[in-house]
Amino acid sequence: MRALVGISCCVKAFGIFNTPNHAASDSYVRVVLGPVGGVPVLVPAGGEGLVADILPRLDGLILTGSRSNVWPGHYDGPPHAEGTPEDQERDATTLPLIRGAIQAGVPLLAICRGMQELNVALGGSLDQRIQDLPRRMDHSTPSDQPIPLVRTGKAHAVRLAPGMLLAELAGREEVPVNSLHNQGVQRLAPRLEAVGWAPDGTVEAVRVREARNFAWGVQWHPEYDWERDEFSRAIFTSFGAACAERAAARFVLQAAE
Q1: Is 22 known to be catalytic?
Q2: Per-residue confidence at 140, pLDDT binned at 50, 70, 90?
């Protein structure tokens, strides 16, 4: 039985009437069908009431990237600059979903906004515009960049903590990554451990301490280049193995009942 892997959705306006739609990028669907080896399940931004019903049915959870930023009220931050996209329906779903997944031992992979959500859900805070801070890099790529391989190409190096899973998957302690974010970790959540850093000190990867299962976050987007990048593919393969193990255990439990 293939693992059912949840993919967090955003609420986005579509069509000439700007009708709200629940959406996730095709890149996440393809990566679940590819190296993760599971069945993608889009998780709508339906609020906290959805969590208790959907988590027992999932064998893994991918928290996706997005142009929207986590609402600063969740970490007592200042209001966003005018025009900053927010998605409070998503926040209301993903933050309790993260806490529930960690408690239940559902494998979790948090990507870009997803890593920021992971930090906020567990009690951390965010810098809203890293590029405006002293001695920090501009980690964003213009959203209107017309050349996909430039928009999603490698932008800077990340130093990986030795002896941790990501360094083992990479086979080295420094890797090039893409960079498409404005927000970043300010105060690290108590349950998180930083395991990757950009040259300017920005936290680029985290793990959940004493998690019952796979629970990692990366600030870059491995879903963009897993077909040509061995490290990106290895992240998803490792996550997929944890999902498959949970699916097998869930099948045995259901059969016993």
Answers
A1: no
A2: confident
Q: Is 112 a catalytic residue?
A: yes
Residue 104 phi, psi dihedral angles, 5° rounding:
-85, -10
For residues 168 and 76, give the distance between their C-alpha atoms in angstroms, rounded to a whole number.
36
Q: Is 181 a catalytic residue?
A: no
Q: What is the pLDDT of residues 35-88, one digit of tens each?
A: 999 999 999 999 999 999 999 999 999 999 999 999 999 999 999 999 999 999
* CA of residue 22 relative to chain centroid, distance: 17
DSSP 86: B
The residues near 47 (Cβ < 8 Å, ≥ 6 apart) are 89, 92, 93
Between CA 147 and CA 130 the distance in angstroms is 24
**DSSP state string for 138-187:** -----TT-S-HHHHTS--EEEEEPTTSHHHHHHTSSEEEE----S-EESS
Catalytic hit among 9, 80, 89, 112:
112
pLDDT in tens, 12-29: 999 999 999 999 999 999
